[in-house]
Structure formats: structure tokens, C-alpha cells
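Task: sequence design from structure.
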């Protein structure tokens, strides 16, 4: 069995550490939708397991979606670009590329991946004008060009569709029996933890409420909905009818090392685990 693809970018709030929790008791589903794609850890895991017939992958970050699109359609051109000496791991090269504005899709994707691999803490953060503003990370040997994984990602994306837009667009493409996974920017658990910088537009409390209405609309449509969020009063209140499950995750990004550790998060499902388990058994029996 070929090695599975994994996220090609480091992403704040990435879900690789929660994959066991997210994939337990999954129901049999038709198509897969991820409106806040980010690093795509759950998508890659389900793709490797052969669970996805077709995926509809969306994010509001145009730089990120462009990178996915280039990997899907022109991965060899991207690898050739990233192999250039211009993408060296030193401050001079970093700040020159950070200040650049490539015109080609490949150039934009290469810049995006390079900055993600070499910026401080792997952050992707922009200011109110949309300018990337993370300082140089001073890593000794970051893997700027990971050809093997880029090729795996390329193969994993071939049957899927990529979009850039608001998460509400998921309502246009979902049907009964589809699985929709929402991993939005989390509700901040304190005033100092409010990290909202993936795009120039922050994700507000009103956006969290809009998301809740979309979740309920999809639930009424007969979709399976999976959502992760912070352990917060607002998230509990918004999704109380779905009985949120408390899980523990490592805090991957904090400027102070002693503040990194296990934190509580929430997983929300709109299906009963035993119902999902029965459907999985039916699927296995039908395959014989």
C-alpha cells in the first residue's frame, strides 16, 4: 500500500493529533465536504483509507487554495520552482520572498509554501491589508521542498474539487448522506488567545452563529455533520442540542513554551455512534 499523503503545510490548529477522535464511529457517507480546509489532515486520512468517493474542499484563504490547485494540476512545475536557490533558508531570502508579489499561480504557490516552512512557528498570519507579517523562523533545516509528499498530495486530489469562498457555500453542494467536517477558527477561550489571522477578515462571534445555522440546516437536510471547536461557553451554547464531546489536544502554537500542553476542545457530531456503527456493519456485510 502506498504511503498516505499528509498535510503539506503547517497549520495553526491542525487536526493530525485528533484524527483518532474524529474518525471513530464515522457513518457510511456519500461525498465528503470540508469548508475550512486548512492543512486537510482529516481529508488525507479518509482518502488514504478509501472512504472518499469525491471531496469538495473549500477555504476562504485564496493563497492556500491556489497552492492546493497548483499541486493538483502542475505539481512538477511547483517542485521545479521550489528547487530554485532563491528559496534558501536564510533571512535575506526570506524577507525578499515575503515582500514579493508573484504573478503566476506557480510562483504564488511556491511563495506560500516557502513562507509556511520558514516563518516563525509555521504561522500563516496577515494584517488588516492582507500582507503576510510573520518574522523569519530561524529553523536549521526546514523541508521546503518535500517532493515525495507533494506527489502523494497530487494523487490524492485528482478526483476532488477545490473552491475558495465562505463556508456557507457548502449548502450549495451537499446532499443527504454526505459528510461535512467543519474546523473553523476557534472561539477564543481568553482575550489573549484570539488568533484570527489566516485571512484579513477575522472570524467573529457572529460568524460562529452563522456557522451554527449552517450546521443545523445541513442536519435538517440529512447530512452527517462533524465539527471541532474550542472548549468554550459559546461553543457549548451554540451546539448544546448535539451534546458536544470533550477531547484533549496539544497546544501546538504559543509564544511561550511553558504554555504548550494538553487543552480541552470540543467535537460535535449530529449522529448517534451506535447508528453509525450499525451502518458500517451493513456496509461490510454488503461488500461480501
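Answer:
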Amino acid at each position: 500500500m502506498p504511503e498516505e499523503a499528509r498535510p503539506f503545510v503547517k497549520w495553526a490548529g491542525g487536526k493530525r493529533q485528533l484524527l483518532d477522535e474524529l474518525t471513530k464511529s464515522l457513518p457510511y457517507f456519500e461525498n465528503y465536504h470540508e469548508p475550512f480546509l486548512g492543512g486537510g489532515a482529516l481529508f488525507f486520512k479518509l482518502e488514504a483509507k478509501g472512504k472518499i468517493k469525491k471531496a469538495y474542499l473549500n477555504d476562504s484563504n485564496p493563497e492556500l487554495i491556489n497552492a492546493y490547485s497548483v499541486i493538483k494540476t502542475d505539481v512538477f512545475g511547483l517542485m521545479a520552482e521550489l528547487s530554485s536557490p532563491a528559496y534558501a533558508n536564510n533571512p535575506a531570502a526570506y524577507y525578499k520572498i515575503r515582500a514579493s508579489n508573484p504573478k503566476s499561480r506557480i510562483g504564488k504557490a511556491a511563495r506560500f509554501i516557502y513562507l509556511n516552512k520558514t516563518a516563525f512557528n509555521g504561522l500563516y498570519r496577515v494584517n488588516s491589508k492582507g500582507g503576510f507579517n510573520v518574522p523569519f523562523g530561524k529553523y536549521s533545516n526546514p523541508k521546503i521542498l518535500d517532493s515525495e509528499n507533494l506527489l502523494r498530495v497530487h494523487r490524492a486530489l485528482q478526483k476532488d474539487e477545490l473552491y475558495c469562498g465562505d463556508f456557507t457555500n457548502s449548502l450549495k453542494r451537499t446532499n443527504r448522506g454526505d459528510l461535512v467536517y467543519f474546523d473553523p477558527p476557534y472561539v477564543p477561550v481568553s482575550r489573549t488567545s484570539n488568533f484570527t489571522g489566516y485571512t484579513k477578515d477575522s472570524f467573529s462571534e457572529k460568524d460562529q452563529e452563522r456557522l451554527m445555522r449552517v450546521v443545523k440546516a445541513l442536519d435538517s437536510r440529512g447530512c452527517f455533520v462533524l465539527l471541532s471547536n474550542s472548549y468554550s461557553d459559546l461553543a457549548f451554547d451554540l451546539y448544546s442540542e448535539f451534546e458536544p464531546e470533550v477531547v484533549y489536544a496539544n497546544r501546538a502554537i504559543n509564544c511561550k513554551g511553558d504554555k504548550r500542553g494538553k487543552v480541552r476542545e470540543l467535537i460535535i457530531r449530529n449522529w448517534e455512534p451506535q447508528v453509525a456503527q450499525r451502518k458500517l456493519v451493513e456496509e461490510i456485510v454488503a461488500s461480501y
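Residues 3 and 152 are 8 Å apart (CA to CA).
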